[in-house]
Write a structure and sequence with these properties.
alpha/beta; Ribose 5-phosphate Isomerase B, Chain: A
Length: about 170
């Protein structure tokens, strides 16, 4: 019998991804790159580029999966990324941001516990998008008291909104 301890293998991070026609090509690329990197990727659609599709049909189910813990993080893509961000943030528990540079990709997670990254498939190139997603997925929430305090305030805003209170 060996004295060496067996270290259990960590399961790959479950990442959700979704896009409308404006982000379809970038979604396909990022999904392939993430799978190659060892992530477990759940694709929330669209399954093919449909010019008449609507981003909420794909982004909102992804946002619910993030909020419910079905996936650890989400990547939502539409043409500009703006609509994806707006739609995702309507789901309580989701903290989605449109990101175009790496500082915010990690700082948003470290300070604000951002759990969904939004990208514009028509405005961000493949290499930049991959770097942003890798940075986002590698970042960890700091858990600092001031950040937890701020997130608790946001949670209260969500609770009041759900009850129809200002």
């Amino acid at each position: 019998m060996s004295n060496e301890e067996t270290v259990p293998e960590m399961e790959p991070m479950r990442v959700g991804i979704a896009a409308d026609h404006g982000g379809f090509e970038l979604k396909q690329y990022l999904e392939a790159m993430l799978r190659e990197a060892g992530y477990q990727v759940i694709d929330f659609g669209d399954a093919s580029p449909q010019p008449g599709d609507d981003y909420p049909d794909f982004i909102v189910p992804l946002a619910h999966a993030v909020a419910d813990g079905e996936v650890v993080r989400g990547v939502g893509i539409c043409g500009s990324g703006v609509g994806a961000s707006v739609a995702a943030n309507k789901v309580p528990g989701v903290r989605a941001c449109l990101i175009h540079e790496t500082y915010s990709a990690h700082q948003g997670v470290e300070d604000d516990d951002m759990n969904m990254l939004c990208l514009g498939g028509l405005v961000v190139g493949r290499a930049a998008a991959l770097e942003l997603v890798q940075t986002f997925l590698a970042a960890r929430f700091s858990g600092a008291e001031r950040h937890r305090r701020r997130l608790a305030k946001i949670s209260e805003i969500e609770k009041r909104a759900l009850k129809g209170m200002p």
